[in-house]
């Protein structure tokens, strides 16, 4: 039984819990980063961050945007898991400021060691903030989450080391390993919340059937894949890895079939979660084919994962979590359904259109930016104001 947290919250609602500043800051940053990247691709902008714009794009969409949303979600969820008040007030402000300085450090005249410190300190501090209540309450089921955050931080340090040493191979391995670790976290957390949200959203109050074998198999395979990138096995096709990727695609597909209820297609907060999770299947199958020797671009699988699965799940989860943790009804306006659809279109444009015409890249940037702008339009006042039910948080 959880202990209900009793604590004085800061007067400013924005700093009451981690999801508020990090969902807002991460979304706004992603819009700016996408528009900047689109301007670079179109030849209209020519910024020169250290290491070049490709290094910046690779690093920031994962360790800037996704890391912010992961931090906001986990720093909020850990309060529910443990019953111990989550990070708020000045400590939360300090952590957010560190994240913000990391984003700005690419374009500031700073020594390389300071850039590395600003960039690389954020995720370890998030892990520490998560570990304290989890260890204090001995929530062993959540220990892997802390480990995953630390592993993602390790991949970031590998990427930064490659940037510092002008080693393209290290940068690529660090980003791809980190991306698949985020997929492992999506698999772990998605396995908990997607079936739960689906059943509750459709009025089914019965417990979600437990399938520990499936959850463990998904997590084990999802963690094995990033290791292959760190070891350099993702640089060239390795036939031995094809069955691993194909097997993981089968596991994800099995989950979706077991979670499915035809009623979910009437509820945008539900179909958005299922469609985003479904992108894990083509991401895995694409790499299974590549490792089996089929002549396809592995970048397409990476973008199916990063745009379709990761960004899609981020927008859907931010929409659901922000309503639930501010005491509002779990209903979104019709335009938010368009936001969920635009993320799907962004992924389709990047994966299916971009290989044939550069127009696909522009459409993907346009659709992705539109989805995030719609989120900000509706959720900025929600995240910046107190809960409507008067409860703390």
UniProtKB/TrEMBL annotation:
The chain crosses the membrane at residues 21-41, 61-78, 112-131, 143-164, 176-197, 217-234, 240-258, 270-290, 302-323, 335-353, 359-380. The keyword Iron does not apply. Keywords: Membrane, Transmembrane, Transmembrane helix. InterPro entries: NnrS. The keyword Transmembrane applies. This is NnrS family protein. It comes from Pseudomonas muyukensis. The lineage of its organism: Bacteria, Pseudomonadati, Pseudomonadota, Gammaproteobacteria, Pseudomonadales.
